[in-house]
TrEMBL record:
PROSITE patterns: 4FE4S_FER_2 (PS51379). It comes from the Bacteria. This is Glutamate synthase subunit beta. It comes from Streptomyces osmaniensis. The keyword Ubl conjugation does not apply. It holds the Pfam family Pyr_redox_2.
Length: 495
């Protein structure tokens, strides 16, 4: 502990965001460039080095948070990078995209603002690249064993990097034209610029990982054929089977899934398109779903120049403080949070009828109405109670030229035939069945990430990738020295 009184003398200070007026005019990350490093050492000083660091338990990666907080407070960036990379393959991803359950578990958070763990993590990750502390780490020798990883999201990339470094020959198969999965085409540029992703991919190439893009296993190459080519296969395709909204008028044009909308905006940023064919420009937009994907749609629609944007959340508006009776420390509480996108919508007043920022809480969609051409023009909703029962005399109508459904995902997409061709057993909720060693019912085939766990956070995805890599390494060699931070049955801390 560099400063035993740091948490008493230094207030919490987050990485400042650029002004709303500036950042909605571009697709760059929302934070002020270079503004994190001048404050981060003092913020790391706030770490109490508590006797039982619950931040460890709150993070499925088991990040050694007090250790690298202490090293950052002393500005020993090389050692901090080593400690962070010991548990996390991609800290610059999690430092930008993770909702930071570690901060909810921070002991300081019992009665004070938590340590800015996420910001410290991001600073270490970025500094590691700037100072050359993240070189490729190719194996000293090859094992002669081969592994196919299907899917290049955070789970697939983490598994591939761990297995490559263990000496196995690894090929990653990705159905899209670029590597990255939802980090590439689901996460907007303003949340994570894609050069962070590109340099990790180049690092992995230099270590020996092979990448096969535009290859949907089950369609472009038979799943059984792929299985016969490799000693082991890891399925890390994610949970991309989106949930539907079955209400009258759903068949109208202009009602789209969030994951049909977001990739087009990302392709504009990649230079593939001049403009999105699903652009929100000049349209009244309604987003159905109150989660992070909905917030990503919100920020994207604002940047595209929507006439108005409203986000519907079926849950009641949470309070600003943790309810200790319902969600006691150190669980991750459901409280009112203001993301960058919601801050933008609030300041720009994109939804005058909203309860807060752009959100209507406790709102349930009843039906859509359209024009004579069959295009959606309005959304009819009603307020609901905690049991989602409709409240009388609360109906209202919102103008809607574009409706985006952000209702979450139920499991892996099955349209490519991968699951059926391999004969994989499935859980009733739509995820792939696996045992305590991440193995499916098919010998040599393993399942990890959202495809088996269900929709989750990026830290859980990376933890799954690291853990399945250890399981595959053990399967191939009879033992493994790779870390396995979680089991398939571990779950986040809840009451």
């Amino acid at each position: 502990m560099a400063d035993p009184k740091g948490f008493m003398t230094t207030p919490r200070q987050d990485w400042p965001r650029r002004s709303v007026e500036e950042r909605v005019g571009d697709w760059d990350e929302v934070y002020v460039p270079g503004a994190l490093l001048p404050i981060i050492s003092k913020q790391a000083d706030r770490c109490m080095d508590c006797g039982v660091p619950f931040c460890h338990e709150a993070c499925p990666l088991g990040n050694l948070i007090p250790e690298w907080n202490d090293l950052v407070s002393r500005e020993d960036w090389r050692a901090a990078a080593d400690r962070l990379h010991a548990t996390n393959n991609f800290p610059e991803f999690t430092g930008r995209l993770c909702p930071a359950p570690c901060e909810a578990g921070c002991v300081l958070a019992i009665n004070q603002p938590a340590v800015t763990i996420k910001n410290v993590e991001c600073a270490i990750g970025d500094r590691a690249w700037e100072e050359g502390f993240a070189p490729p780490r190719p194996p000293d020798r090859l094992s002669g064993r081969t592994v196919a990883v299907i899917g290049s999201g955070p789970t697939g990339l983490a598994a591939a990097q761990q297995l490559t470094r263990a000496g196995h020959t690894v090929a990653v198969y990705e159905k899209d034209d670029r590597i990255g999965g939802l980090m590439r085409y689901g996460i907007p540029e303003f949340k994570m610029e894609k050069h962070h992703l590109e340099r990790r991919i180049e690092q992995m190439r230099a270590e020996g990982t092979k990448f096969r893009t535009s290859t949907a296993v089950g369609r472009d190459i038979g799943a059984a054929e792929l299985r016969s080519r490799y000693d082991a296969v890891v399925i890390a395709t994610g949970a991309t089977a989106w949930r539907e909204l079955s209400v009258p008028g759903r068949e109208l044009s202009g009602i789209e899934q969030a994951m049909e909308y977001l990739p087009l905006a990302n392709r504009v940023c990649e230079g593939d398109l001049e403009s999105s064919p699903m652009s929100a420009a000049g349209k009244h937009v309604v987003i159905v779903g109150g989660g992070d994907t909905g917030a990503d749609c919100l920020g994207t629609a604002v940047r595209e120049g929507a006439a108005s944007v409203t986000q519907l959340d079926i849950y009641a508006q949470p309070g600003a403080e943790r309810d200790e009776d319902v969600e006691p420390w150190p669980t991750y509480p459901k409280i009112y949070r203001l993301s960058a996108a919601h801050e933008e919508a609030r300041d720009l007043e994109t939804a005058p009828a909203a309860d807060a920022d752009a959100r209507l809480f406790a709102a349930s969609t009843l039906r859509f109405a359209g024009d004579v051409d069959g295009h959606v023009r309005s959304l009819h909703l009603v307020e609901v109670d905690a049991q989602r029962r409709q409240l009388p005399d609360t109906g209202r109508t919102l103008p809607a030229d574009l409706v985006l459904l952000a209702l979450g995902f139920s499991g892996p997409d099955r349209t490519d035939g991968l699951i059926e061709q391999l004969g994989l057993e499935m859980e009733p909720r739509g995820t792939i069945t696996r045992d305590a060693g991440f193995a499916t019912n098919v010998p040599g085939v393993f399942a990890a990430g959202d495809a088996a766990r269900g929709q989750s956070l990026i830290v859980w995805a990376i933890a799954e990738g690291r853990a399945v890599a250890a399981a595959v390494d053990h399967h191939l060699t009879g033992s493994s020295r790779l870390p396995a931070p979680i089991s398939p049955y571990d779950r986040p801390m809840t009451v």
